[in-house]
Design goal:
globular, about 300 residues, 14 helices, Na+/H+ antiporter like fold, mainly alpha, single chain
């Protein structure tokens, strides 16, 4: 328990460090995008490659990808339902900012440090399904809800996914693992060195990008979205842990993943639909705080 708390406190300290450094002027607001590019295009793909290496996958494990996709679909449905009778703009906002999991930038470092390679494999598979929601699925549904963009387009989602370096890494390593193949040892050794910096860079990025906005009128909307989201998360976590036939490490990882924050791309997609970016940023940032508390509590309970 002490080790878990110390590791979690270390992560929180890095987030606070990033936030303080930005407030003091060491980082500028636009530096967030530089750090996020390093994480998404370098350290996160390296972590995926190094943790997948040497792991054999059975075809049945691909079900975890469907769980990631299914969880996102359920949250989209919840966002649609809580905005029943509201304007098209509010429905689009709820769909975008209720769905998707911020796994690569947030939850994966927790799994990497607490659950090891098996947990990382489960996380990577889950996130590959989740990517369909985060990188285009939720946006397409929100666009359809608002009456823009011609509705749901699966081709555009696939095109976006294939441009994502982490998704390409998931795809490559999943195929290799299914056929029990591995990358050359020097490549794996190189990626492990880079992967060691992923947790630090991801937590620092969250701190640099952390911002809260929103007036009292918006607090009700924030509370409504987050309370429904985490209520759904609790139900999914219980179902994954007690009903799935996977080994314990996989089920532990899935429980943690259920409490991931809202997808980091949600505010950007909200802006693209001319929505309330300030409110979207507030919802996103508060979900990070809530997720830290819940994930630490879950880790203390299941480990």
């Amino acid at each position: 328990m002490g080790e878990i708390l110390m590791q979690a406190i270390s992560f929180i300290a890095i987030i606070i460090l990033g936030y303080v450094l930005r407030r003091r002027g060491f980082f500028k607001e636009e530096d967030f995008y530089v750090i996020s590019r390093i994480v998404l295009k370098i350290t996160l793909p390296a972590a995926i490659v190094s943790n997948f290496s040497g792991m054999g996958l059975e075809p049945s494990m691909l079900l975890i990808s469907l769980l990631g996709l299914g969880g996102g679909v359920i949250l989209i449905g919840a966002g649609w339902l809580i905005s029943a009778g509201k304007s098209k703009e509010e429905r689009a906002f709820s769909v975008l900012n209720m769905s998707g999991y911020n796994i690569g930038n947030f939850t994966m470092p927790f799994v990497q440090n607490f659950l090891g390679p098996a947990g990382m494999v489960a996380t990577s598979l889950f996130d590959s399904g989740n990517s369909f929601i985060c990188l285009g699925g939720a946006y397409s549904v929100a666009s359809m809800a608002k009456g823009e963009g011609g509705g749901f387009r699966i081709g555009k989602i696939f095109k976006t996914l294939l441009k994502s370096v982490p998704f390409d890494a998931y795809l490559l390593m999943t195929v290799l693992s299914l056929f029990h193949l591995s990358l050359p040892a020097p490549v794996v050794s190189f990626t492990k060195v880079i992967a060691n910096g992923n947790a630090f860079m991801a937590m620092l990025m969250i701190g640099v990008g952390f911002k809260l906005s929103g007036n009292r009128e918006q607090i009700g909307k924030i509370v409504k979205i987050l309370s429904v989201r985490y209520a759904v998360s609790i139900v999914l976590a219980l179902a994954f842990y007690f009903l799935l036939p996977f080994q314990l490490e996989y089920r532990q990882a899935l429980v943690i993943l259920c409490f991931s924050p809202i997808a980091s791309a949600a505010p950007a997609f909200t802006g693209d639909l001319k929505g309330d970016v300030g409110l979207a940023s507030a919802v996103n940032s508060i979900s990070i705080v809530v997720s830290i508390v819940l994930i630490v509590a879950v880790l203390l309970f299941i480990l």
